[in-house]
Amino acid sequence: MLKALLWDVDGTLAETERDGHRVAFNLAFAEAGLNWGWTEQHYAELLHVTGGRERILAYMVTRPDAPASQQHKHALARQLHLRKNQHYAALVAEGRILARPGVVALIREAAAAGLVQAIVTTTSRSNVQALLPTLLGPHWAACFSAVLCGEDTERKKPDPEVYTLALQRLGLAPHEALAIEDSTPGAKAAHAAGLPLVLRPSVYFPAQAVPAGLAAVLCTAEDHFDLAQLREWHGRRAHAAGWAGVQRGV
Ligand code: XBP
Ligand code: MG
After folding, report:
1. Are residues 44 and 105 in the same domain?
2. pTM of the predicted model, to two decimals?
3. What CATH number should be reported for the domain holding residue 134?
4. Is 19 a catalytic residue?
5. What's the gap in Å between 149 CA and the centre of ligand 1?
6. Cβ burial, residue 167 (10 Å; 0-12/13-18/19+)
7. Is 8 a catalytic residue?
8. Residue 134, domain extent
9. Which residues contact 139 (CB under 8 A, 6 or more apart)?
């Protein structure tokens, strides 16, 4: 039985990457006097490194004008990432990032139906705290029993750590929950944690980019997105995986 929804943030709740994080990275680079503009197209590749600080560090490897020493690289990445997140919060506050269709209604519907919900993301906590009130209002946190962010784990998605931690916190077995993701790293993380998964493609992770073999229900960006539909998808996965009669903790 479906008891919990585990929500990814970037690309799932809202299209934050192209018009939010990417723009904010570029503002931070320009402010620091760096000629490091990330185009929309290039950002699609950069997104395969999860975590903004890690993404900057990976990019530095390709830049002859990056600091030479590891120590200076890390210090600059930390500083740029901090500023990036401040710019991101300002962009969000300007109303530049909207919820994806159906998401807000579904979170409210699930809350009203008594489902447990959690935020399970690799983004920084400050970005969640900036975005969620604009999507769900000042009492957004009441909808979620756990909010797990980039700072809460050693390893970011595609590592399953953040999902495993979420299940532990909620006291649930993987088959009792459903992860909602948009990206390949996110889908790999949920899959590796043993979670059934709905994959809703986003701007940077279109359906054709999703690797085969993930135990996912792949929907389209336009698919009707309500609780009845999620229960149906979860039931379909349960049937395919033979979860009927599986007891929690077994
Ligand atoms: C997406 C990410 C993040 C964001 C930037 O995480 O990989 O790194 O691009 O956020 P998810 P930070 O889809 O799991 O929400 O700069 O805070 O890392
Ligand atoms: Mg995502």
Report:
1. no
2. 0.94
3. 3.40.50.1000
4. no
5. 9
6. buried
7. yes
8. 4-15+98-249
9. none
